[in-house]
Every structure is written in C-alpha cells, then in structure tokens.
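Q: Hi! First time doing this. I have a protein sequence and I read that you can turn it into a structure. Is that right? Here it is:
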Amino acid sequence: MQPSEKFRFLYFTDLVGMKVVSSDGAPMGRLADLVAVSGEPYPPVESLVVRAAGKLWQVPWSAVESVNGTIRLSPGAALEPVPDAPVPDRLHVGEEILDRQIVDIEGAKLVRVNDLHFLETKGQLRIAHVDVGLRGLVRRMGWQRPVDGVVSMFRPAARYLNDDALLSWKLVQPIESAPGRVRIEATKKALASLHPADLAEIIEDLDRHQREVLFQRLDVGTAADALEETSTELATELLEAVPPEKAADILEEMAPDEAADALSELPGDTREYLLRAMERPEAAEVAELLEYHPRSAGGLMTPDLVELPPTATVADAFAEVRRRAEELPLVYEIFVVEGGQLKGMVTLKDLVLALDPSLTLSAILREVPATVRDDASVREVARAASKYNLLSVPVVDESGVLKGMVTVDDILAEVIGAA
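A: Yes, that's right. Below is the predicted 3D structure, encoded as structure tokens:
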C-alpha cells in the first residue's frame, strides 16, 4: 500500500471475509485472518491470511494496494503457502485474540474480546484497540446496521450508539506464542499496578489453564501479593504450577503466616523440598508456624512485628519502623519486650506525641489490653479483639514469650470463611 498522511480506523469484523483481488481485479480468495508482529505498543500487520480453493495462503501487507470494499493487491503480488510451524513473535489476531478473555487493567476485571480495531496510516495497518463492548458483539454477528437503525429510531441518545468499549492495545500483550491459546492483555508492569485483591479476584475467575498461564507470567513480588489474597486451596494450586525454585522465591516474599497456610496443603515431600529451597530465616519462621493447628492463634499469627527493648528510644522506634517499612505493610504498634517477655506496647500515636526523641519506651509504655496463648482458638482471638477494639492481638506461649500477633484482617477472613 502506498504511504499516505491520511488515516482511518477499520474493524477486523469488517475486514474478515473481504474479497482479495489482484491488481487487475481477478478474484484470489477471501481474507481469513491477519498476522501481526507482537511486542510493539501498536503491532503492525505483517501479512494477510487468504482462504482460496479450500486452503490458507499468505501474502505480505506490503503487497496491498488498497482496501475499499475489496482488498486489491499490487501488480506481481502472489499468494504463498502459510508456514507449517508457528513463527515466533507473530500473532494470528483472529485466531488468537478474538473471543479470548483479557484483563481490563483500568477496570480490574475480566472481559471478552468481541472485535479488533485497526489504524491504517502511512502504508501500515496497526492494531490500535480491542473492542469488548456490546456493539462489538453485535457487529460480529452481522446485526450492527439493523440494530443501530432500531436503536436510533427509538432511543437516538442511547449510550450504545456512541460508547464503544475500546481498550488500548498498549495494555495487551500475548502470554503464549502457540496459536489458539489464551492471551492476557497485560504486561508484568501493568499487572503489578493492580491492587493484589483485584488481581487475586481476576485469577480466581479464570479457568485452571488460564490462571496458571497468567500466574507464571507474574514477577515474584506480584505473585506473592496476589497469593496472599487468594484462598489457601488456590494458592497451593498455583504454587504447584510454577517451577519449585520460583515457588520458593514466592513463598519467601509472602507473609510467613500466609506462606505457612499455602504450604500446609501441599504433599509432605513437596512441602519439605520447598522449605529447604527457601532462604534459611524465612524457612525457619514458616516451619515454626506449620507446627501449629491452622485454626489456632499460632496458626493464624504472623511473626512479622516490631519489637524493641524498654531501653530503646522514641528515635530508635521510628528508625526501626522506617527500616522495616517494606516488609511490614501495616504497623499498628511497637511491642516492648525484655528477655523475650512481653512488657507492654507503644502505639504510633504515642511516638508522634512524644516530643523528646531521646525518651525511652519504658517512659511511655502502656499495658497490653489482652494477649492470647498460641494454642487459643479463633473464637478466643476474635473475642479479645472485639472486647478491647484491637487491630492486632499479641500471641504468647505458656511462659509469656511473645511469639507473634494476629491481625484483625486475618481474624475476619477466618471467621467469614467459616461462616
């Protein structure tokens, strides 16, 4: 096609099935699909797949002279056999994208591709958007003209007529190179931008194959965040879907209590292998949690908390919170411990109101409203949190040694899950 400064948009539905003719108008077949080069923000179409005489043929897009009701090829253009093996970094867009589920990053939900939107400019045809709206589906079924006419007659201001649900292809990246498989429209960076709870919900809505494909594409940190928001059963399933080395890395990034929950459902030999593959400090924490009954305070608690001696200063406390900010997403209080024994607590509010940074924690120490033993039931933990309006409940052993804490979100998740 000759380069031009003009541009126009074309839908795949309007192109597929269009007659392909030679430069002198002789019929050569009909368009069956388009092959695009993946990896670019707006992938260019490299070739056309033409159905002729019951077979599929290929012709380069550079051989297209015009698209105007028919696809006219330039002089000398000839159909060539379609390669038998898939070509790397090439997308058969109709076969591999159309009717597939994708992730709408902005809406944080799964949607279905009903059509593809192309931009024709400067001699190239590029994928610009995917259409996930009702109108795209109507267009696919060949009903757009009559449906648009009826809607225009009775409801000329209807949103349907003007609100095309187009998602930019910049958010669409193929996950697998094999044709006919699921394609998810998100780069690792885009997926990482989702809230972990939204990503977990999306993963849960996919079928088993799709969720495993998507999960394998996540970086370790994003995968760990998502697993913390899924059910224990699904977390276990996904950990088994990735290589053991990556599974161990993901477990290291997870909160110890969440990692222990996921590991508890795995077969014993797999669990032991992953524990050995994890870094020693993280593995030791998780192994200790696995000793507790999963529905006990010990099974629910996390050892990730801030604890300091009574002699530490307010400045020391702030420094410790800053140092551990990345590994502790939420800090409710600092536990004051001496010889392993829980002596009291200091809230963040206490630290902020302490005007003298050299003040020791013993000077602003307050009594812990309630503690629970590590073998306490979920009901006992929930009762303590409710009675004293606690965001976290400290867990101690029979000697009063601080072992961890159970946060209110874990209590709620356990209570709701059991309801």
